[in-house]
Structure formats: C-alpha cells, structure tokens
From TrEMBL, chains A, B, C, D:
Cofactor: FMN
Entry annotation: catalytic residues: H244 (proton acceptor)
Protein name from the UniProt record: (S)-2-hydroxy-acid oxidase
Catalytic activity: 2-hydroxyoctanoate + O2 = 2-oxooctanoate + H2O2; a (2S)-2-hydroxycarboxylate + O2 = a 2-oxocarboxylate + H2O2
Gene3D superfamilies: Aldolase class I (3.20.20.70)
Family that this chain belongs to: Belongs to the FMN-dependent alpha-hydroxy acid dehydrogenase family.
Keywords: Flavoprotein, FMN, Oxidoreductase
GO-annotated molecular function: (S)-2-hydroxy-acid oxidase activity; FMN binding
Segments forming domain FMN hydroxy acid dehydrogenase: 1-332
Binding-site residues for glyoxylate, renumbered to this chain: Y24, R165, H244, R247
Gene Ontology CC terms: peroxisomal matrix
C-alpha cells in the first residue's frame, strides 16, 4: 500500500491500532461536530490562483519565536504516544529533529521530559502544560523543561475539565498497565487522575507562570478576538488558535475560521499559530495566507507514529512539506 | 451497553418498545421536517467559547415562576406514559421529584392526577390542558389540578385538531385495552376521541381560564413574535415556545429559532421556556444563552422511562445535568 | 397497504405500472434537476403558524375564472391517461366532477374530447392546446372544445420542441398500438409525431387564438416577470406558472419560486395558478399564501389513476383536501 | 446500450478502459474538489426561460479568432489519446474536422503534429504548448505547428509543476512501452520527464513566444481578473479560463465561476473561452450567456474516443450540439 497522502496514514492507523487507542486519538466531544468542522472549514476556503510567476525557487523556511524551522508545520501536543508506537514520544522527538521542526511535548507524555530530550539532543522543543491544583507539580515541570532546553511553554487554556468523548466513556479508556504519565512527580498509574487540573485558573495565573520562568509563554486554545486581546495584554509571546481537536466544547468554531478573527485582533503584536484540521499541504498554505505564522498537526502525527514510528512521522511531515511547496507553486 | 448520551436511550427505546408505541412517540407530522429541524437548528448555533475563567464553582439552579429547580431542565407534557413503562406517569413524577425539577403532567396521562400526586408528594408539577368542547370537563380538570397542588396550568395552543402523523394512521394507533386516558370525567377507552377538543378557542378563552383558577397560566405552542405579544397582553405568566415536537404543522420553524423572536418580543415581561430538539447539555446552554429561563424535554424523557422507568428517567436527567455543567465550564 | 399520503400512491404506481409508462410519467429533462427542485423549493418555504384563532369553520371553496370549485386544487393537463388506467381521461373527468374541481384535458389525451365530455357531463373542464404547424388542426380543436362546453383554453407555451427526457429516449417510448392520440383530425398512431408543433409561435399568436374563440385563454409555462407582463398585455385571462413538471428546460426555476415574481408582476390583473411539486395539502396552502388562486396537480393525479382509476384519483384529491384543511387550521 | 447523454460515454469508458488509463483521465488533484466543483458550479446556475419566441430557425455557428466553427464547442488539449483509442490524436483530428470544429492538439500527444495534420487535412487546429527548460525544444514545436497550418498557439500557464493526482501516484502511472510523447525532439519514453517544464516562466515569456511566431497566442489557465488583465496587457489574442480539469491546484474556483470575473475584466478586448465541467448542451448555453465565445471539452472527448474512436467522439459532439440547440430553443 502506497502512502500518498495523510488519509492513507489515517486508514492504516484505524486498521492496525487497538480499537481503544484509535478511539482515544480519534475522539471528539459529544457529536464530534467541531472535530469534523475543523476539516470542512478548510475545504470551504478557496484559492485565487495566480499564473506565470517564477516559482523555480521557493523558500519555505520560517522562524517561530526566533527559531528557524524547515517549513511551517510543527507537532502539536498530544498525549500518550506509546499508544501509537512503543518508543512513544522519543520517536516523535527524533522525527521532529530530523525534519528540523518544532515538537510541543505534552504533559501527558508517556516518556519523561528527560527521555525526550536525550532521544533527540538539540531539537527545537516546546513544553505543553496544564496548571494543576497542586501548583508545585506545575512549577516543578516548568523548571525541568527550562533546564532541559525546551524553548517555549505552551499553556493549554481550554481544559478546566475534560470534554465528554463518548467512545472513551464507553470503552472505559485508561492507559494499559505498562504505560504511565511519567512527567508528574508521582507518576499516575492508569491515565488521567480525574481532578488533578485546576478549574479555577484565570488570566492572572499567566503572571504566576511568568514569575517561574524566562521562557516565552504561548497560550493554546484561544478562539475569539476577546480572548486574543486578553492574551496579548497578559503578556504571552504566542497564541495557538485551537479547539483541542474538537475534543473539548463541541459546536464551537472551526479553528481556521477562528484564526481570522484572532489574527485581526492581535494585529501582529504576537505570533499566532493554529492547529486542527490540517490534512494537506494546501491547508498549511491557507492558514498562512490567513495570518498564521505556523501550523501544528495533532492526529496526523499520531497516524505517522502508528505507521512506522519516527520514520512514519517523517513520512507524514515530508508529504505535507512536498504538498505545501507544490501548492505554493501552483497558487503563484 | 453503557448509557452515555441521550441517543443511547433513543436506540434502546427503538429496540425494546412495541413498534406501535415507538412510532407514536417518534411521529412527526407529514414529512417530519419540523421534528428533525428542531434538532438540526440547535446544531447550526455555534458557541464562542471563552477561556481562563474561574469555573471551579458553578451554580446551575434556577427558579421558574418562583419555584426553585436543581437545573434548568423540566419534563414536557407528553401523553400515555404507560406505553413506555408500566407505572406510567407515576414513575415520571417520582423521577422529577428525585431530580428536583418540574414535571408538566399531560391531560392525556394514563394515570389520574390524583395518582400522580400521590406517587411523589411535594414534587413541583404543572398541569397541561386542552380546552374541550365540553367546557365543564376542562373546568373540572383545572379545579382538580389546583386542589392537588399543581403549581401552574399549561394551556396547549397548537392543537385545534391533531396533526397528521402518517405512521399512526398506518398503524391505526390506539391505546391498548388496559390503558385509559384516565383524567377525563368519563375516561375514554382506546385513545383520543376525535372531536373532543374545541377548535373555536381564541385568545379570549384565556380570560375564561383565568376566571377558573388562581394558578399561573403558561401558554404552550407559541412560535411567532405576534403571538408572543398577544400572550403577554392576555395576561399569561409564561410562554413555552413549542411546535409540539413537530407533530402538528409540518414545515414551521424550529423552536430554538422561534425562541429568539419570542424572547425579543416579550422583553422580559413573562418567563419564556422552550421545548423540542434538546438532546445534549450544550443544547440547554444554547437555549439559556438565547433567553430561555428553562427548557423542557419530551421524547428523551420517554426514552428514559422506556429504559428503566423512574430510574431511567433520572439517568437521562443526570446526563443532561452533567453535560450542561460541563458545557458551561468549557464555554467559560 | 394504507394510502395515507400522496407518496403512497407514487410508490404504488412505480410498482405496478409498466416501466415504460412509469418512466414516461416520471421523466424530467436532462438531469431532472428542475423536476426535483419543484419539490425541494416547497420544502424550503416555512410557515409562521399562528395560534388561538377560531378554526372551527373553514370555507375552502374558491372560484377560478368565475367557476366555483370545492377546493383550490385542479387537475393539470398530462397526456396519455390510458397508460395509467384503461378508461383513461374518462376516469379523470369523472373523478374531477365527483370532487367538484376543474380538469384541464390535454391535447394528447387518449380519449376524444367528445368521450371526455360524455363521461362526466356538466363537469368544469378546460382544454389544453398546442399550436400546430397545421393551424387548421388547432383551430378545429378549439372549436370542438368550445362546442363541447369546455370553459377555458390553456395554451402551453413551453414546448416549441419536446425536452430531452433520457429514459424515454432509452426506452424508445411510444404509445402501445391500441392507444392513440385521438383528438387530432388524423389520429396519430404511436405517440407524438416529431414535428407537429410549430416552433415559430410568438406572442402575436395569442391574438390569432383570441380571434377563434370567446373562451378565456390561460397561458401555461410562464416563469418570469417579463413574460408575465407580456401575457397580461396580450390579453390572457389567466397564467399557469409551470415548467412542464421539469420535463422541458432543465435547471430553470422551481415553479413555487417563479410564482412569487409572476404574482408581483401581474399585480392582480389576471388570475395566477401554479403546478409542479404539489405533494401535500400544506404545499397548496403555501402556493395560495404566495398569491396563487389555485394549484394544479400533474403526476399525483396519474398515480391516483394508476391506483384505482377514478376512485384512486378521488382518493388523491380527498387526501389533499383533508391535508389542506388541516394545515389551514394548524397555521391559523 | 443507447448513448443518450455524455455520462453514458463516461460509464462506458470507466467500464472498458484499462484502470490505469481511466484513472489518469479521471484524476483530479488532491481531494478532487475542484474537478467536481467544475460540474457542481454549472448546476448552481439557473436559467430564466422565456416563452413564445420564434425558435424555428437558430444559427449556432460562431467564429473563434476569425475561423468559423459549426457550433461553439471545441476539443480541449488533453494528453495521450492512444490510451483511449489506438489511432489516438489522429482520430480526434478526424472527428473535429468532420464536425467542423476546432481541435487543440496537446504537446503531450501520442501522435506527431505531422501525423495529426495528415490525418485530417484542412481541419481547424490550434497547438497547445508548455515552455520547456530547453527553450529550443519549445521553439522547434512552435515552428513546426505554424508550418503545418495550426492556426493558434495555446500556452498553458497553470503547470509550472504537475499537480498531485493521488491515483496516478498509487498506480505509478506511466505510458505503456509502445506509446511515446512523440512531439518532442527526443521522444520521451514512458510518459512525462519530471523536470522538463520551466517553472521560472513569467509574463515576459509571452513576448519571447510572440517573437517566434505570427500565430495568435491564446493563454490557458487564467482564473482571476488580475491575471486576465495581465494577459490582455501582454498582448494575447485569447484566454481560456481553465483549471486544467481540476488536476493542478485543488480548491481553487470552478471555471464557470471564474469566467464571470475574467469576462468582466477583459471587457471584450480579447476572446474568452472556458473549459471544465461541460457535460450538457445547456452548460454550453450557460457559458455563452456568461460571456464565453466558445467552450472546450476535455474528458468527454476522451470518453467518446474510448467508445468508438473518431465515430464515438463525433457522437459526443453531436449530442452536445443537439442539446445545445434544444436548450437555446427552450430558453427562448
């Protein structure tokens, strides 16, 4: 079977992953409307292709918060990579470094930050965190990430509670016994402790986070101009427009639609990124044309891992890169 | 089988109810366009979720006409609960009381008002009535309801004649011999007598109803700003925006769409509620955001009854409550 | 099998008619887009139902060109009724008279005008005609119709050539040997002679037609305000908004959409009717609410004939009548 | 099987062509959205049919760049006709001449220009070219075409690189060994050499092309008003609005939609044509009504070839001609 486009990897993963793992990765909240809208909204956007421009040489490199990446596609934070591939996040880190792009490691990794760092020294990585009820746990994670050379902190803002993903409830989803959420001080056994995150977090906690670290803070989960304005005022360095892959509140906006109003509100004061629904190189081009500095892929990265570990993830990134370059050329 | 969301109860009911009962509950008028539109219209409404608000404590209680309920979801009046569960409306009354919410008992109950009251003393209940050609029958019902402690009278305005529900015609729907519409003086055997309701009822009959009782009058079936204005002027205390679950005139508006214009016309002078198409907690949130004080569920309550009687109905209500609270948190 | 709504008759006809006859009646031009749009356009129109009006007595009679009919639904001109039922147009005439409504007999009837008249003396009938290359043939038909007591002449304007109905071409459609287009002087054997109609007909030919008869002239096939204005100026007494059931030019407007602009252009100067896509009593109500004086049904009448001849057609009309009355009541 | 409309030929070709050839002809870029949009966009355009006009005589001839054709449908440039029929482009040339219309021969023909010319002397033909990295190759082609009596040069502007057609990648598409791209000096074996075309071509290269030939230059692949203006300013004689059958950049505009803005920008200064999505005679009428001077068909011509070579292609053209004439008559 030739792996020609990202949906080939999706088909593979659906076929070969254990059902409980596939369901977990695929899950959207409630009716999965927003998960699917992320993709449909991209399709509604149409190019106006221009002809006879010299497209013999194209530079697709970009910089995010000052670090150069080979093309504007990074790896979004997703949990539990060992569900997709035995080496888990270590493979992800290696693939991202090999392709010279940015990998946002999740708090809910099945490898420690130290293992991730050791697997791919020198790679560009950001660390994604939640604010826990136990603030010391969060603080300790920030310090570790900074010490290990992570170059950005991504605060996820859209998960005061976990969204209702019906299949996970039906499956009674939990991690298999041999996997752990290793990054937290006392490694949780069997998946997410239900009440570890702090639902009382507010914008003021950005200041608290700021006080812990010199790393740039990127806020993830912004979907409205009002929150974009608040994010800028509270001093973040970047915004990831995201709806958590449609896994939190169902029937909110598609991210590519929300991107437009966020970019407009931000007026260039901080960098804006987007995740959700990227399935083709032309989606990347659309996001950039609408003001994103870079996009991040979630599920497609997991499909790549499921296919062949770091090699499979590189395949996914390479396909996106080729498609992105081709669509730039064809759009003029 | 895990009961995770309301459509699980729907699937169960479809599978285990006698076809004639399922068809009766599921029926919409003509092509069932409006029945289905009630649901589709909810899906077209999108949230603008806000982040980083303190959602650690949320109060979801509300008051309808002065009575507190634990969350803004009541039980809409539907007929013939014994078709769904042997104890019929007695189970409904118990479940509503257990969940501390309001139950609107239908004229076409298969238990008497007295049985319903005795089943769950102290529960918050309203009584739904039609105006019969035999006014004495209606008057007697109002008096009984008032005496039994019902705290509101819901006048259904959209059924001068019964809508054309094709499956009921095909099935020759009638109640099984052992069930009766017990509330009327001379209990009808076998379902609805075709010409018992008075199609000449007009707005002036609100005054007549007013003269019979000190209970608040809620009018059910309003879909336009014009009728909302008339309802207010005729002195009702509440309006239920409803299209009878799409069982009366097909191809009218979805209730959530009609709610917007009714709320605008009413300008806060009376309370406005809505029924039709509520299938998730986020639907409740949408209705409240658009101005409803509370919503009522019809078919989902019947599915709950069909599943496990009062326990099943409590499950349905509890799921809606949890989903409602979660969607409030996630929407900020 | 209970015949509850018009689509039950459609199902029956599809099942029991010879395929070649079913295909002929069902055919639309090209991709059948307009044929289907006629129905879809009705569904897009929504009611604003009003409540608490006295609907105990409703008068659904109306007058068209001065003749009273029992409700505003007549029989549109369609050809070859013997394909649906042995007695053909004689049955149609009897059913229309029994239901006290208007039947527009087609030039392409399989019974003569004389047979039709004799079958149901005293029934309200109009005669539909084309203008033939052989004007004497048209003139002779007009005279016969007038002499037989037909009370209107319906000139079909949308068939200078026959539309391309793919299934008819595939089937090599022609009438069976024992049926004939009996109304023309020399009865054609086997269906339509390809070049009998005159494609050079223009508005001025209305004057020619006017000179032949004192009957009111109704023009059928108008879809634009421009042509509606021309029709009025050329002195017709009525306009049937029609696209020939979607059998002529595909991808023109649905008739109910075209009705709106025609009614606006006509400003009450002549009566306006509509055919195409009427499947429920509520469609009739919509057409009347948008300005039609009466509607005509084409295929549903044929389904009724196919079911049980005149009795089946009466069933169809009676269902439409009941549904129309009910939807009037429910819409207030 | 009767061949009644173009989709009959499509069905035939899908059934009888080798899968690799069918896939190649059918392929669209990426998700095939634009390929399918070309057709859907035609369907969204509605006629406003006018009645009672004299349509007994209709002249459907037209002139393109001064040459008369029998009706406004030509053959768009498509490659590899031997994949559809053994005689390849020779059959195409014969059919076009027999129907007295224009055939645009592709650079990627499997017959030489000389063979094509010899097959149908005197036929109206244009030659389609790309600009190769090896400019001498392009120049030599232009000279040959001019010498052979081709009457126009069609420069394809939308293929700096080949679009991503997933099925071709999966199939490892290449020409069978016995076919060659014969027109290029050193005939390529096995399909397209990946880097033969020059992606650095810009508008100034029109001047270079102008310097090589006195033939009119038609630019193919324009989709925006901006590029239309540039094309006119750079002195082309004609514009073909085209998205390469949806085979290049996916999710750009449908050609019939783009036609509107191109025609508006051009303001009659040069002739405008369109290809993509023509499947019925009424599509031709729509394109002309929106300002095209003529349309070109791509895939339908290949289906005709696949059916019966030049005879099959004539069938396709004849059907389009008949449908076009009929739709003109019915639209008034």
């Amino acid at each position: 079977m030739a792996m020609v486009c990202l949906s080939d990897f999706e088909d593979y993963a659906k076929k070969y992953l254990p059902k409980i793992a596939w369901d977990y990765f695929a899950a959207g909240a409630d009716d999965c409307t927003t998960r699917d809208e992320n993709i449909l909204a991209f399709k509604r956007i149409r190019f106006r292709p221009r002809m006879l421009r010299d497209v013999s040489v194209m530079d697709i490199r970009t910089k995010i918060l000052g670090s150069e990446i080979s093309f504007p596609v990074g790896i979004a934070p997703t949990g539990f990579h060992q569900l997709a591939w035995p080496d888990g996040e270590k493979s992800t880190a290696r693939a991202a470094r090999a392709m010279n792009t940015c990998y946002i490691a999740s708090t809910y990794s099945t490898c420690t930050l130290e293992e991730i760092s050791a697997a791919a020294p020198g790679g560009l990585r950001w660390f994604q965190l939640y604010i826990h009820r136990n603030r010391a746990a969060s603080q300790q994670l920030v310090r570790r990430a900074e010490a290990l050379g992570f170059r950005g902190l991504v605060l996820t803002a859209d998960l005061p509670y976990t969204g209702k993903r019906r299949d996970d409830v039906r499956n009674g989803f939990r991690l298999p016994p041999h996997m752990k959420v290793k990054n937290l001080e006392q490694a949780f056994e069997y998946g997410l402790p239900p009440n570890s995150l702090d639902p009382s977090v507010t914008w003021n906690d950005i200041y608290w986070l700021r006080s812990l670290t010199r790393l740039p803070i990127i806020i993830k989960g912004i979907l409205t101009r009002e929150d974009a304005e608040l994010a800028v005022r509270h001093g973040v360095q970047g915004i990831i427009v995201s709806n958590h892959g449609g896994r939190q509140l169902d029937e909110g906006p598609a991210t590519i639609d929300a991107l437009v109003e966020v970019v407009e509100a931000v007026r260039g004061r901080v960098e804006v990124y987007v995740d959700g629904g990227i399935r083709k190189g032309s989606d990347v081009l659309k996001a950039l044309a609408l003001g994103a500095k870079c996009v991040f892929i979630g599920r497609p990265a997991l499909w790549g891992l499921a296919y062949k570990g770091e090699e499979g993830l590189q395949d996914v990134l390479r396909i996106l890169q080729d498609e992105f370059r081709l669509s730039m050329a064809l759009a003029g």
